[in-house]
């Protein structure tokens, strides 16, 4: 199996730089996806999100809870961020999730995924980190988005699109103009024949 990924981001009205950032690290057979939403928007939010993503790139093999803890310490001098991590094992067909703050996850999967982000702000005090593991099957769709996207949309309405188009259309249709809006989509597919 292989993971196809698509991302889209829209900058808040009046800003030149996004305070949201996505990081993707492929370490076969695993793919690590991170989304950070720096507090507020503009350059200071971008600094927090970028610092989180660089830390994730440099420490991608760590367990998710340890990775979030370390990233929180790393970005403590910034204004902080909401952030979430997904690690998908392509060979085992397994997803692991952990997050802090108001990053949302939606999924179309054969197995229900009742997940939640820990309360708090990464880079500040976080009471307790948790991670969740679930099996995945080919065709499963998992999406993370920042709070700049209204969460009431039906993911199934976008299911037939490729991941990049899905992310773009969701951002275009459901973004809030006053905040950065970012979406990252991961679809598990059967590996194409060589």
Automatic annotation (TrEMBL):
Transmembrane segments: none annotated. Pfam families: SpoIIE (PF07228). Signal peptide: none annotated. It comes from the Bacteria. Residues 2-188 form the PPM-type phosphatase domain. PANTHER family: PHOSPHOSERINE PHOSPHATASE RSBX. This is Phosphoserine phosphatase. It comes from Sorangium cellulosum. The lineage of its organism: Bacteria, Pseudomonadati, Myxococcota, Polyangia, Polyangiales.
């Amino acid at each position: 199996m292989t993971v196809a990924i698509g991302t889209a981001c829209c900058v808040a009205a009046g800003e030149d730089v996004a305070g949201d950032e996505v990081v993707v690290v492929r370490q076969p057979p695993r793919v690590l996806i991170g989304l950070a939403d720096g507090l507020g928007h503009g350059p200071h939010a971008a600094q927090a999100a970028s610092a989180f993503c660089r830390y994730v790139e440099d420490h991608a093999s760590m367990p998710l809870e340890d990775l979030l803890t370390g990233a929180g310490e790393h970005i403590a001098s910034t204004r902080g961020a909401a952030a979430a991590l997904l690690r998908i094992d392509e060979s085992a067909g397994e997803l692991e999730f952990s997050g802090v703050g108001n990053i949302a996850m939606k999924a179309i999967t054969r197995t229900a995924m009742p997940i939640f982000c820990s309360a708090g702000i990464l880079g500040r005090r976080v009471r307790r980190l948790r991670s969740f593991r679930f099996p995945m099957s080919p065709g499963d769709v998992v999406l993370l988005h920042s709070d700049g996207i209204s969460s009431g949309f039906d993911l199934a309405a976008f299911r037939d699109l490729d991941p990049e188009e899905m992310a773009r259309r969701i951002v275009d249709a459901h973004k809030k103009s006053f905040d950065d809006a970012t979406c990252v989509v991961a679809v598990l597919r059967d590996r194409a024949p060589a």
